[in-house]
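Chain A, query sequence.
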Amino acid sequence: MPEPAYPSEARHIAFRAPEPNFVLAVTLMIVASAFFAAMAGLIRYGSEDLHPFQLTFLRSAFGLLLMLPWLMRSGPGILRTRRFGLFTVRGLTSAAAMFAFFWALSQMQLADAVALSFTAPLFVTILAVVFLHEVVRARRWTAVAVGFIGAMIILRPGGDAISWPALAVLFSTLMMAASIICIKLLSRTESVNAIYFWMVLFLVPITFVPAVFVWQDPTWEQLAVGAGIDFAGTVGHLLVTRAFGLADTSALMPFDFARLIFSAIVGFLFFSQVPDIWTGVGATVIAAAGFYIAHREARAARSAGAARSAAEP
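Chain A, predicted structure.
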């Protein structure tokens, strides 16, 4: 739902019933969060018997199988591109993000890993300045700093929370942010479907190489887990994409916090994990900073759109 242009409008909107599209968008975000939590739980469960690197490959392979019918229907022409190098970078950063996150989930509490993954908007903001030459003013830099303070609350330097798995989550989030920057660059010339398919196409050979060194023949149950990981992740991403098409990103960002709640529930019910209070506090700080960044980006985008409209004859 678009934000009101003036505070006086906000008072009137506050007493209206929510728009149907916004209610649907929120519902989709919450359901997507449940799917992402299920994916994290399946990764944790599957990594008890298979190495996380092999699980990463299985997820990529099932993702490619899922895309093949679409490719046959669309034809190979959809894959024509002159930006092969940037697609390669996107594939490498996505693979690195998956390797690190899958391994971290096998080593630490689900809620802690998901809480740290909320730092993604912070890294995207920093990388956008470097690679997209975006102008970030003091308020957004302050939000970035506050978000990293939230990460420090979870990590608690000097305590027991800092570990290689926790650092792996932050590395994974940085790589995912780099992948998002690649998407922003590619979207200027490439279709959404081509961008997604090229990522899947690159992930299969990239993730296969490390998997070879830890390979063990998977059972049917383990193959089902790999397929379930891909299914849950794919459905989650589709639901989020649909939600963002129905309402402003800034309005939906607070509901992304449901990922932490569902992940904590999955961790408690299936793995006897009990997150401490600092995880919730830190995640709240990070999520609030991410929400503010999304809010400022949405305002900047609307202002730019209004300026372009005013400049048109």
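The first helix runs from residue 7 to 13. Residues 69 and 250 are 34 Å apart (CA to CA).
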